[in-house]
């Protein structure tokens, strides 16, 4: 989440805010995050922007695919056998 158009949420809460939006937080954790959002204008603005962005994506923009570079980097690591490190 390095989109420069997003306002910055508190670093400690940014991931929790996404999880809260996705409904992925445990109930008591969700309550803590919601309490913070109520008191924190920065996080409130972030949540609103994120929700609007998410709604736009859901409204029809294609989900971004993994870049070719990412695939090459990860498959390269996976192709390297672990045993190679132990041979001598
Ligand atoms: Zn905050």
Give a brief description.
The chain has 88 residues and is mainly alpha-helical. The protein is built from four helices and no strands.
Hetero groups: zinc ion
Please give the number of β-strands. Answer: 0
How far is the first residue's CA from the last residue's CA? 42 Å
Helix count, DSSP H or I runs of 4 or more residues: 4
Mean pLDDT: 82
Structural class: mainly alpha
Low-confidence stretches: none
Helical residue percent band: 55-70%
Strand content: under 5%
Description of the structure:
By secondary structure, this protein is an all-alpha fold. It has a domain at 8-63. It has 4 helices and no strands. It has helices at residues 11-22, 27-39, 41-58, 68-79. Helix 1 crosses helix 2, helix 1 (11-22) packs across helix 3 (41-58) and helix 2 packs across helix 3 (41-58). The model has no long low-confidence stretch (mean pLDDT 82). Bound molecules: zinc ion.
Topology:
Blueprint: H1 11-22, H2 27-39, H3 41-58, H4 68-79
Helix pairs in contact: 1-2, 1-3, 2-3
This protein binds zinc ion (ZN).
Protein traits:
88 residues, mainly alpha, 4 helices, binds zinc ion
